[in-house]
Amino acid sequence: MAEVTNGKSSITRLAHDHVFYILHLLPVESILCFSMTCKRFRAISSSDGFWQSICRRDLGSSSVDDLVASYEAECRKIHWKKLYQQVLQFESVLCARLAGKDGISPRPRASHSLNCVSNCLVLFGGGCEGGRHLDDTWIAHAESGFQHVLLWQKINSGVPTGRFGQSCNVIGDRLVLFGGINDSGMRQNDTWIGNVICDDKQEINLSWRLLNVGPNAPPPRGAHAGCCVGEKMVIHGGIGLDGSRLNDSWLLDLRDDGRSATWHEIVTLVSSPARSGHTLTWIGGNLVILFGGRGNGYEVHNDLWLFNIGGEYPEWAKLICDTANVPDAVPDPRVGHSATLILGGQVLICGGEDSQMHRKDDFWVLDPSVIPAIKTRSHVLNFKRSSRKMWKRMKVEGHLPSRRSFHRACANQSGHCVYISGGMVDGVTQPTEALGLGFDGDAYLVKLLL
Fold it and tell me: Taking every annotated instance into account, which residue ranges of this chain make up the domain F-box (predicted)?
């Protein structure tokens, strides 16, 4: 207990900077409780400077810097405590269609890759009409999207070789691409590094290089899922050489400043069922979230798995929450959706299609902070918190993107905005096109309304 002298606890006599430091170590719920103990603590914990430091702690300094620049450009003043609450409680997104300057933009495609690295959008490959693959790389300054125009530049073709259904993730200031399927149906298992180069004239370029990974590599596949985990990359599942779906997991460890790397399989006692067209999203530390996808029986899932790749024994755990009394509490089953880590450590889910190829145009946000930690070697995590707190369906303002699947999405550096590109959309059914499939070339900017 704190020492009491002359009716005052010793903690109340701490210097201002000491109290500030202590509060800065606490979770937000504890800060709010602490602030109710006396007027002095309430004043310190309500100050704008204190909440700016909490925003930097929890949202990241680079995200906060980008938000400051955005607010200054709009001549808006930031109230930091209110901003923190808005990030965690926002309920709407604003969508805007992005035009290509002078009508120049990548051709319609799906199952390509789209990433934001060094403040640049990089688009590669994908599939297009006729079942053909593409081998082109396009690049644009991400900031230009705020003016609803993208200045796309076609960088090169042929390297890497054409493919669709590859994974491509950002590690540091590099792109790491793995696998995919070409238009002959051949699965790949090569690994490529992409480096973005910006010169003093603000001109941008990108070079691809085949990465030396040694003799051990994942079996060839496409339509798998992948994400970065700090300075490493993890992949899972996909469609293998014989057309069956996989449930294995592999980790890529870069070495020598990205000049070489090694793959090793992550062996677990239990894994999520085999699938393709699902998503993996890093949510911090050693934790990855898996959502959705298509199984070996062509069933489409909306299950949620937590993958802890750290420690001596990596493990999967299925997340189960009772939704019997909460209608429309979770997203419908889907495959070919996107899942993007956004501001506040939340995950934005967009689109996809169900088992009947009915495409979707909805947006959902998953809050990983309500997911219980794996404290025991349990492969199922049941928790009683309302799934409505874990999942929120977003209201949409502006130009709603058409229903689509196998599009691609990525967030800007702050996580405040998400870019969406391409995908499969409902086309005009012709006698030779029984399914009425169409490829889309549109790009959209999705902004969190805070």
Answer: 8-54
d(CA 156, CA 153): 9
Q: Could you give the angle at which helices 80-89 and 48-59 cross, rounded to 10 degrees?
A: 40
171, β-bridge pairs? 174
Output Rg (C-alpha) for the chain, integer angstroms.
23
The count of other CB atoms within 10 Å of the CB of residue 347 is 20
Average pLDDT over residues 421-437: 67
Q: What is the pLDDT of residue 427?
A: 67
With b for 16 or more beta-carbon neighbours within 10 A and e for fewer, the 130-142 pattern comes to eeebbbbbbbbbb
| 300: its two tokens | 């489409």
Beta strand pairing status for 380-383 and 346-350?
A: unpaired
Tokens of 435: 């399914």
Q: What token pair was written down for 112? A: 């390509």
Q: Which of 238, 89, 241, 228 shows the shortest CA–CA distance to 166? A: 238
Q: Residue 430 has what pLDDT?
A: 44
Distances (CA, A) of 220 to 171, 175, 188, 217: 22, 19, 5, 9
pLDDT digits (tens, 9 = 90+) for 381-413: 666 555 558 899 999 999 999 999 999 999 998
Helix axes 61-73, 48-59, angle to 10 degrees: 120
- Contact assessment for residue 391 and residue 368, using Cβ atoms and an 8 Å cutoff: no
| Tokens at 333, concatenated | 């089953």
With 0-12 / 13-18 / 19 or more C-beta atoms within 10 angstroms meaning exposed / middle / buried, residue 7 is: exposed
Question: Are 280 and 273 in contact, with CB atoms under 8 Å apart?
Answer: no
Gap between the Cα atoms of 168 and 28, Å rounded = 35
> What's the rounded Cα separation, in Å, for the pair 316 and 313?
10
